[in-house]
UniProtKB/TrEMBL annotation:
This is Uncharacterized protein. It comes from the Eukaryota. Keywords: Coiled coil. The lineage of its organism: Eukaryota, Metazoa, Chordata, Craniata, Vertebrata. Residues 19-51 form a coiled coil.
Length: 128
């Protein structure tokens, strides 16, 4: 019985110490939870600041790419027009060269063409 009384007395002595330790541990856990919550809030705030900035940057890049595509398309069309113009100039020069050709040379071309195709092509007719 005496042992039981001593045990009870020991339990009574240890009980406040254990309660204090449990309360301290609980307080530490609450502080950690508050830190985690605050950190999450900071991250969300940073994220909400970064998202509009990233969207603006993406819009600028997209706009720039569209402008470059438009400019490249215009340049391509201009080169195609220049090429068509050059082809026309070459065709005109070739026709002029044909007019300057020696009548004997034209006659030779006509004979070669006649042999190959069996008839005289209209574009090899001699011009005065």
């Amino acid at each position: 019985m005496r042992e039981q009384t001593e045990e009870m007395h020991l339990v009574e002595e240890v009980k406040p110490i254990m309660e204090r330790q449990l309360l301290e541990e609980l307080e530490r856990q609450r502080q950690r939870q508050a830190e985690v919550t605050a950190q999450k809030a900071r991250k969300e705030k940073e994220k909400s600041k970064l998202e509009p900035a990233a969207a603006r940057k993406l819009e600028k890049v997209n706009s720039s790419l569209q402008w470059h595509l438009h400019r490249s398309t215009e340049e391509k069309e201009e080169r195609q027009r220049e090429l068509i113009n050059m082809k026309g100039q070459i065709a005109t020069l070739m026709q002029r060269q044909q007019f300057r050709a020696d009548p004997a040379q034209l006659e030779r071309k006509n004979r070669i063409a006649k042999k190959k195709k069996g008839k005289l092509p209209s574009d090899f007719t001699p011009h005065p």
